């Protein structure tokens, strides 16, 4: 029983990775919108873009981690 | 769940990443690898690449300077060439003028000579003409005298030479 | 689930997608001590070999006009050098060899892991945790050595209203200590997830041998999916190495210039 509940929890935690994908997409979309408005400044901000994506993704990875732990370690 | 898996296969865990028995092995070999990579990079690769890049930068800078110098030389050569061209033009004009002057002088001399010759010839001719004319006048006088004498004789007069000559001279003057 | 998959292995077609991450001794079958040469050793050694080929053998001519192999080394050098200079500042250039070591190890391990039947060392949390902890400890120690207690200003946001500052300090402190966790799990998670997904599709690919009807649909689709995932993984391999390195530079900047 406990194992099944853990699997359900893992599935729910997996939703978090999808939501993080929304965040990453949001970052990229806004970067693109800004870059098209001012293309000359875009090249200097790609590093910032990747940092932003990395931070947004980090939280998704936490839920991925929770899912993994629920699946294999609990 | 995980415990079930452990019971099923002793050697494998459901997620090999979470098997702590392999951690020391991985960490040990990772540290060895990192140290090796660090020494390879910092002792050999990075200084070499940095040297190559610096050398290339230097070469490019030198080449640009050399190109600049060559460009300057070309510009100098062009001005020198233009200068030489202008000089040559001036020289040519001078030579042409000199030649012209010389020719003119020769020409003038020849013309003068010719003029003199012509003058001399003309004077000679005039003299000859005058002589001829003189001769002719004398002849005319003679003819007139003799004719007048004959005419006077024919009319029965007797004319002395003096009167006839005076009359003819007066007549010829006219 | 894992045991079920193993039970079906008898048919020779189904395999567990996580099996590729198992650490095995290279010789024999014995227990894994810390010194045992394992497939981890093999693939890390290959990483070293590839790095030496790229950066040492490739540049051995020291040509002013670079050959193709020398260009690769110079590109990698210029890429990381510029990143360190731009993100962490000019005075971080003295840490460039360390950051270059990290980047080269991660990027080459990631790409080697994409070879069929390869073992991906960077998909293991033990490996990435050591990398991330090394960065974290270096940055923390360096921050305190260079700036003393001023380094704590990193957590005390002086631009915020006074009442908010303690709250922000707790958040900042928390996010500071979460850094190595996210730093390591991001890399390992990406590598593991991508490889596992490829393996899952690979498990579906021989379906046509079991049942022609379903196989006609599933097999081409899964082969297509493997190809697409492989392309995505190539991108991810590079981007994750890039992200790991650039975050290292960001953390390093915090240690060198902790003013917020």
Automatic annotation (TrEMBL), chain A:
One of its GO terms (molecular function) is lipid binding. Pfam families: ATP-synt_C. The chain crosses the membrane at residues 12-36, 48-73. Keywords: ATP synthesis, Cell membrane, CF(0), Hydrogen ion transport, Ion transport, Lipid-binding, Membrane, Transmembrane, Transmembrane helix, Transport. The record marks 57 as: Reversibly protonated during proton transport. InterPro entries: ATP_synth_F0_csu, ATP_synth_F0_csu_sf, ATPase_proteolipid_c-like_dom, F/V-ATP_Csub_sf. It is a multi-pass membrane protein. Signal peptide: none annotated. The keyword rRNA-binding does not apply. Residues 8-70 form the V-ATPase proteolipid subunit C-like domain. It is found in: Cell membrane; Membrane. SUPFAM superfamilies: F1F0 ATP synthase subunit C (SSF81333). The keyword Chloroplast does not apply. GO terms for cellular component: plasma membrane; proton-transporting ATP synthase complex; proton-transporting two-sector ATPase complex, proton-transporting domain. Gene3D superfamilies: F1F0 ATP synthase subunit C (1.20.20.10). Belongs to the ATPase C chain family. Key component of the F(0) channel; it plays a direct role in translocation across the membrane. A homomeric c-ring of between 10-14 subunits forms the central stalk rotor element with the F(1) delta and epsilon subunits. This is ATP synthase subunit c. The gene is atpE.
